[in-house]
């Protein structure tokens, strides 16, 4: 190796490094962590290796090939050289040891010196002021004063409201004025808890409460290296570590956190650097940026901290506690570790420095290995107390989950309180925790008993008996996934984050790990070669597969714990599979079948397929059971336990098995069994003449002469006859099989048999019905009806006789309508009022009512509600029964409202029209803003979308809500790209029944307001920026983070955007999106672009002759094209049209005839 390292290639450097060290250069470089520039890192590492090799020398030994001079060299001279080399190595090692000892001695002799970086320094940072503001005692508030709402949004239907007033007066510590270490001021209360059990842990906990935590009691001796320095001592020596560079961007945040900790007492101020003694260990501060959160690196102290193993109850244990419709609550303790104090001597091992000031922790530090153990053990004393009270509860560090089941019992014999309601459960929990010194983080707690609670990041739903995925988690997951898909190459860390999020959803989406095999394989490759991973092939498809989460609203119900067990054994040979039932109602039965002709798959794949066929064959016997399945192939067992395999085909079979297990609600446990003990070995090798079949040619002759046949009465899946198209016939088998229509033809009632071969998929049918039901429940109309029903029920409860839905009378309906007048916005002016006939609310004292149309709509909704409760759709005057909304009294009330408002000269308010002049101003403004270079992609998307929406709505004359419903598939391009044709089939008035609206837009002479150019610009920009709008809704919303959602753009968003432009331009005159439609209609009528109302109705979609338009689509499209051509020409006459309207059509600006 005579060439300089600067001129060596990567291959030469790898070879040279291996010759020197015997190690891989790439692996060493990865261990060092210097992978920013791989080639430079290799040169640097090789350079150091050469220097060290020159210093140490070549190891003892001989080269195999020696030249003549070496062979002839005297042996004594060789030995002398060897001894000299060994002596030199010894001297170097001794020198290093001496240097290390001297360095340790110097550190022990004096305090270490602290260098403060410039970015930490700040003249305004004065922690001594915060010390003066230290809180001596906590402040107290009631739950009512705390404004403690559920930490997550929960619908009213989940909450328990009865007797909630009893919780309002509960007194708790105010979390906004948190004081650390309060449990130590409640030692007498803790004594009542710990003395219940005479065990070592209870005594230890009481000692912690009374005296604080002695950190040295958790220490052990340590000998080893840390960050390149040797250590050998019983306790941590004096040491200083500078703060992490990540703190540089969060200096103001760190100062605020330190000041708050000084005020709540979890930090102690020692003084300024150089003016005070220093603690023994000063740990580095770091910042976790996502929240952000101030942390510190306690790895140095943890080297001397002994291991403290303990177990935690996690989310997967929750479902064992929760019964159907049970009420639950959850508690979060404020700054958990800050509840427990350290002894004064222990504080010296937990120092920190920032901005030239030195502090120590006075409470358990986050990051110290013993902290979670101490906090959990102390908290478990309280958890044990709750469980003795008969409360089902679990604890995860500072998060508590409690559930009140129907079987929740009272406390044991020494009970002082009986928990007979969820409200009492809350009262007992809050009172106990407060008495013991805990401060609750009320904003994170959910103290109103509910059937839906968020705990450890997921929803727990006792009604659905399932875990649910919160929307915020889903959105973060979707954002990360789409970020990955937008790159051609992805770094390992990002893929690891994605894989972790996938696996974390296993409780919500069972089998999630099965769909991360390609991701994990790519991560493994990326870790080995230290390069980014190319997104292609199976990896790309697997990541794309996770897009199903976007629209997934299902759940995986918890499997009920039953003692129903079936044991099965399966086996496979090269030509056949076998199944043996070891326990259950068909115990001792064995069967099997042949593989398809030409199946040459490896044996482990056939073994896995045998498991799948066993479950498919015995699905009725194993449904809702625990199944112990014995297999003599270890690869299959491991693939099931690990949820996947390196073999892609085996993983695909495992996915099919998992889907079958989910459908059948089976708890499948696989076990390995030796082949000689496998009962399914014989049926997997059995051959019989019974399994023979007619040849294809012979069966063709039989079927043509006596057929066609629809059923094979005696067959197996492998030898069943097929019809003329090659499809297996419906058949009966001797034993269960996946495709069998029934077992044993002699046990079948053939006279009632359906020989058509039709099968009923009840699971698919029910799934379809549930999907339609969920869509209906999520519709705006259903939500409005439910809201009205809740309001109506509350009103009925307030009436003197407290009627119910089933006993409500017409008079009650009228009372409810009158009561709702307080929400009205229509003012009924008297004949002598100067404001009669005017819109808006005036200070004239005239009554304000609900509009007559609103009253009519409310009556219709109430009628639907009553009908759903069994009150029918009519009213019987004679018996006074039926639907009271249909009674003469209610109908008369509606007529009176309508007449009253007509006499008051109230007319439906028409939107002020927007003409082409204003549309041009808006379009010009959008074009100018779009050309700016300081806009984000999100802002540009909004601009390019808005201009397309406004132009299209004007020239289509359609409702804004209908424009938002347009699908990209409904838009077709006209010949020669002269425009677009729209076949609008869904909107406010288009809900099936053959109704549709076909209209055309063409290119306009004015390019600024041309709707065709607007749409083309919108589509091109979205395509160039990786947004595919070719399928689904044409116009879509975008989140604050810049994610374009696969949802329609709501009317409210169009309204807000239009008002924003009008106000910004100073031309707002109260217009709404409906104004575009009005301006279009007036423009058509005045300009003569249409021959008469018929053509306008056809273009806009107002025609009621739906069948004629549907079946004569070509003529409609031809007429629509001619009208669109006329529309495109009127843009040059826009000013004349607007002037004509203001002179002849708009009377709102005229002065009164009589002042």
TrEMBL record:
This protein's UniProt keywords: DNA recombination
PROSITE patterns registered for this protein in UniProt: RT_POL, TYR_RECOMBINASE
Protein name (database record): Reverse transcriptase domain-containing protein
Domain of life: Eukaryota
Pfam name, any one: ALOG_dom
Molecular function (Gene Ontology), one example: DNA binding
Record domain Reverse transcriptase: where: 251-460
Chain spans, region Disordered: 60-84
Signal sequence segment: none
GO term, biological process aspect, one: DNA recombination
Record Gene3D superfamilies: 3.30.70.270, HIV Type 1 Reverse Transcriptase, subunit A, domain 1 (3.10.10.10), Intergrase catalytic core (1.10.443.10)
Tyr recombinase domain ranges (all copies): 921-1124
């Amino acid at each position: 190796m005579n060439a300089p390292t600067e001129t060596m290639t990567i291959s030469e450097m790898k070879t040279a490094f291996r010759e020197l060290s015997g190690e891989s250069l790439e692996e060493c470089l990865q261990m060092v962590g210097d992978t920013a520039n791989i080639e430079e890192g290799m040169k640097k590492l090789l350079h150091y290796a050469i220097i060290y090799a020159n210093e140490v020398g070549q190891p003892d030994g001989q080269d195999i090939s020696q030249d003549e001079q070496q062979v002839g060299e005297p042996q004594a001279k060789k030995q002398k050289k060897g001894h000299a080399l060994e002596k030199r190595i010894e001297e170097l090692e001794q020198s290093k040891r001496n240097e290390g000892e001297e360095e340790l001695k110097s550190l022990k002799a004096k305090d270490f010196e602290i260098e403060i970086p410039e970015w930490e320094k700040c003249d305004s940072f004065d922690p001594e002021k915060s010390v003066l503001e230290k809180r001596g005692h906590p402040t107290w508030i009631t739950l009512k004063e705390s404004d403690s709402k559920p930490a997550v949004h929960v619908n009213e239907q989940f909450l328990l409201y009865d007797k909630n007033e009893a919780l309002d007066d509960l007194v708790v510590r105010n979390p906004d004025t948190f004081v650390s270490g309060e449990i130590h001021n409640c030692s007498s209360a803790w004594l009542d808890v710990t003395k219940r059990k005479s065990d070592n842990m209870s005594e230890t906990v009481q000692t912690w409460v009374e005296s604080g935590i002695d950190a040295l009691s958790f220490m052990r001796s340590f000998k080893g290296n840390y960050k390149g320095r040797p250590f050998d001592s019983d306790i941590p020596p004096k040491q200083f570590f500078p703060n992490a560079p990540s703190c540089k961007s969060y200096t103001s945040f760190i100062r605020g956190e330190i000041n708050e900790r000084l005020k709540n007492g979890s930090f102690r101020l020692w003084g300024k650097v150089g003016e005070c003694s220093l603690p023994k260990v000063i740990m580095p501060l770091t910042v976790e940026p996502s929240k952000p959160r101030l942390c510190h690196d306690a790895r140095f102290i943890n080297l001397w901290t002994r291991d403290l193993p303990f177990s935690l109850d996690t989310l997967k244990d929750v479902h064992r506690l929760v019964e159907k419709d049970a009420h639950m609550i959850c508690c979060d303790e404020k700054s958990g570790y800050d509840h427990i104090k350290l002894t004064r001597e222990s504080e010296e091992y937990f120092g920190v420095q920032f901005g030239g000031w030195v502090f120590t922790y006075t409470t358990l530090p986050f990051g110290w290995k013993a902290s979670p153990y101490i906090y959990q053990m102390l908290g478990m004393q309280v958890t044990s107390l709750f469980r003795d009270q008969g409360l089902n509860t679990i604890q995860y560090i500072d998060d508590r989950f409690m559930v009140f089941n129907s079987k929740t019992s009272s406390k044991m014999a020494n009970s002082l309180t009986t928990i007979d309601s969820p409200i009492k459960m809350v009262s007992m929990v809050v009172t106990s925790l407060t008495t013991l010194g805990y401060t609750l983080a009320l904003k994170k707690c959910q103290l109103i008993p509910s059937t839906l609670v968020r705990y450890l990041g997921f929803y727990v739903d006792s009604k659905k008996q399932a875990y649910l995925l919160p929307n915020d988690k889903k959105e973060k997951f979707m954002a990360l996934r789409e970020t990955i898909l937008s790159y051609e190459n992805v770094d390992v860390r990002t893929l690891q984050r994605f894989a972790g999020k996938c696996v974390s959803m296993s409780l919500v989406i069972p089998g999630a790990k099965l769909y991360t095999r390609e991701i994990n394989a790519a991560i493994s490759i990326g870790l080995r070669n230290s390069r980014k991973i190319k997104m292609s092939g199976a990896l790309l498809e697997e990541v794309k597969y996770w897009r199903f989460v976007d629209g997934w609203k299902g759940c995986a119900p918890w499997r009920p714990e039953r003692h129903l067990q079936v044991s099965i054994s399966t086996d496979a040979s090269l030509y056949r599979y076998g199944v043996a039932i070891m326990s259950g109602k068909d115990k001792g039965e064995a069967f099997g079948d042949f593989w398809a002709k030409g199946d040459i798959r490896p044996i482990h794949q056939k073994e896995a397929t045998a498991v799948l066929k066993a479950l498919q064959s015995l699905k009725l016997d194993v449904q809702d059971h625990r199944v112990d399945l014995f297999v003599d192939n270890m690869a299959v067992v491991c693939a099931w336990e690990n949820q996947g395999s390196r073999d892609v085909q085996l993983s695909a079979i495992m996915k099919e098995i998992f889907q079958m297990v989910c459908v059948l609600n089976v708890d499948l446990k696989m076990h390995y069994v030796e082949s000689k003990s496998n009962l399914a070995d014989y049926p997997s090798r059995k051959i019989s003449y019974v399994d023979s079949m007619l040849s294809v040619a012979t069966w063709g002759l039989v079927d043509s002469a006596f057929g066609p046949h629809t059923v094979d009465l005696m067959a197996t899946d492998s030898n069943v006859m097929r019809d003329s198209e090659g499809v297996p016939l419906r058949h009966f088998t001797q034993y269960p099989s996946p495709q069998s229509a029934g077992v044993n033809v002699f046990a079948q009632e053939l006279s009632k048999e359906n020989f058509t071969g039709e099968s009923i998929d009840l699971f698919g049918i029910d799934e379809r019905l549930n999907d339609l039901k969920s869509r209906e429940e999520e519709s705006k109309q259903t939500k409005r009806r439910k809201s009205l029903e809740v309001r109506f029920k509350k009103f009925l409860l307030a009436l003197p006789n407290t009627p119910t839905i089933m006993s409500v009378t017409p008079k009650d309906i009228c009372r409810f309508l009158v009561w709702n007048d307080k929400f009205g916005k229509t003012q009924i002016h008297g004949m002598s009022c100067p404001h009669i006939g005017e819109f808006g609310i005036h200070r004239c004292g005239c009554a304000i009512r609900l509009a007559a149309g609103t009253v009519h709509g409310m009556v219709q909704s109430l009628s639907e509600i009553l009908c759903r409760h069994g009150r029918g759709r009519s009213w019987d005057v004679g018996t006074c029964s039926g639907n009271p909304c249909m009674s003469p009294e209610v109908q008369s009330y509606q007529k009176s409202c309508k007449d009253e408002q007509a006499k008051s000269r109230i007319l439906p308010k028409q939107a002020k029209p927007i003409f082409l002049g204003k549309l041009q101003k808006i379009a010009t403004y959008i074009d100018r803003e779009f050309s700016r270079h300081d806009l984000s992609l999100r802002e540009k998307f909004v601009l390019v979308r808005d201009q397309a929406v406004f132009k299209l709505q004007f020239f289509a004359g359609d409702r804004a809500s209908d424009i938002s419903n347009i699908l990209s598939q409904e838009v077709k391009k006209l010949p020669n790209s002269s425009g677009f044709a729209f076949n609008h089939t869904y909107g406010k008035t288009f809900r099936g029944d053959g109704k549709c609206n076909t209209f055309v837009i063409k290119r306009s002479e004015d390019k600024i307001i041309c709707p065709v150019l607007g749409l083309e610009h919108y589509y091109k920009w979205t395509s160039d920026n990786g947004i595919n709008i070719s399928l689904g809704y044409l116009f879509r919303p975008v989140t604050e983070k810049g994610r374009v959602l696969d949802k329609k753009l709501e009317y409210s968003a169009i309204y807000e955007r239009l008002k924003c432009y009008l106000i910004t331009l100073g031309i707002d005159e109260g217009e709404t999106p409906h104004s575009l439609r009005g301006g279009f209609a007036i423009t058509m009528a005045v300009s003569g672009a249409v021959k008469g109302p018929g053509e306008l109705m056809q273009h806009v979609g107002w025609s009621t002759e739906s069948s004629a338009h549907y079946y004569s689509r070509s003529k409609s499209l031809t007429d629509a094209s001619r009208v669109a051509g006329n529309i495109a020409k009127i843009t040059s006459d826009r000013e004349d049209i607007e002037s004509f309207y203001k002179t002849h059509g708009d009377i709102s600006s005229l002065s009164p005839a009589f002042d």
